[in-house]
Amino acid sequence: NAGVMQNPRHLVRRRGQEARLRCSPMKGHSHVYWYRQLPEEGLKFMVYLQKENIIDESGMPKERFSAEFPKEGPSILRIQQVVRGDSAAYFCASSLAAKYEQYFGPGTRLTVT
Amino acid sequence: AQTVTQSQPEMSVQEAETVTLSCTYDTSESDYYLFWYKQPPSRQMILVIRQEAYKQQNATENRFSVNFQKAAKSFSLKISDSQLGDAAMYFCASGGATNKLIFGTGTLLAVQP
Fold it and tell me: A42 vs B100: CB contact, 8 Å cut-off?
């Protein structure tokens, strides 16, 4: 039973480019969460999605960031016009249902040069 | 709003000994749950243990157990018979009706051979 998959594991982007981070939840999980971890800090919630719906995006920056979880395919976290401050590890988690354990993927480390 | 505080940035334990990591939290929710996650150098977030607030019995998973003091809003993790593989960053997290997890800043545990 494969765990949460994230790709790419490492992503380097120049300032102003777009970054697309992908997350495939565990089999049978329909709840996906994105978190960001800045260097030397804990994880910060960004967005919570169910299939085709954004449930809670209270942690998402108002501009340049968007997320989706289509009916088919992985969840995508998209960052437009990246800046150096976007450099961080981005983790995706999935759960079977609300209030269940969240299982994390290995993370995508984004570096903006 | 929920907050999670880990007041020990670093801890050290001798192999085979017992160590306790501290965590306090604050929440206005009546139905909430608490987690400990482990983040080894690989940076993968690994679920260690979960505790539902309504349960009086402390959760246990093999060598890992918690001391959940609801009135004091305290949720400490005890690791017995520490092993070299336990060396990692440990994060305490709380979740509730919104399903998003609020993480503490982490405790870096070193295990001395």
Answer: no
| Amino acid sitting at position A99 | K
Residue A99, pLDDT above cutoff 80: no
pLDDT in the model for residue A1? 53
Closest alpha carbon to B7 in B90, B78, B69, B80: B90
Q: What does the pLDDT look like over B14-61, one tens digit per residue?
A: 999 999 999 999 988 888 999 999 999 888 899 999 999 988 899 999
Chain B, nearest residue to A98 by Cα? B99
For residue A93 the two structure tokens come to 């988690």
Question: Does A107 contact B105 at a Cβ distance shorter than 8 Å?
Answer: no
Separation CA A48–CA A34 (nearest Å): 7
Q: Is the dihedral of CA B67, B91, B3, A59 positive or negative?
A: negative
